[in-house]
């Protein structure tokens, strides 16, 4: 799932992203107000977007809701199965799934809130989901098409940046998250996906080796 030409670069990005997630989490732990960076970007507690952009923001937000997310993942998984790539299908489910679970756990640990004590906000799970799915798809396309290191180093981050920016804009515009929550969600995806790809590859390789060994024993 990780093209060999991109592995060193992705490991570095994952490590840096993890540091950002932890740093922001520590900085905003237990906070219920926007920070200086948040106020500099926009007033994050105001539902300020109006028609027609509010409809666009709501449509994007839907993609991070359970039904919308399931539809997106289901579509990509179907494509993988039609291409006879079960490993890719597993990656499509596991990558975004682990990213969302990680974001949810971090929310409880950090305890940052918006619009009341019941609304945990850091990091943004919606942003983590869409960014992680975009990363997974970009990695699969890069590997399947045999895109080189230079092109892959442009395609993969571009996909993550576009997805994170679009969903991040929607979350901030709707007042659902602070800008730093969005950054935390984006970095969560960048940290989780390379690690998930490595685990999927290692697990699939081991299962394939066991199946090969079992076949050889039967032939004996």
Automatic annotation (TrEMBL):
Gene3D superfamilies: Phosphatidic acid phosphatase type 2/haloperoxidase. Keywords: Membrane, Transmembrane, Transmembrane helix. Residues 70-197 form the Phosphatidic acid phosphatase type 2/haloperoxidase domain. It comes from the Bacteria. The chain crosses the membrane at residues 56-82, 89-106, 126-147, 154-176, 182-200. InterPro entries: PAP2/HPO (IPR000326), PAP2/HPO_sf (IPR036938). SMART domains: acidPPc. Signal peptide: none annotated. The keyword Transmembrane applies. This is Phosphatase PAP2 family protein. It comes from Streptomyces osmaniensis.
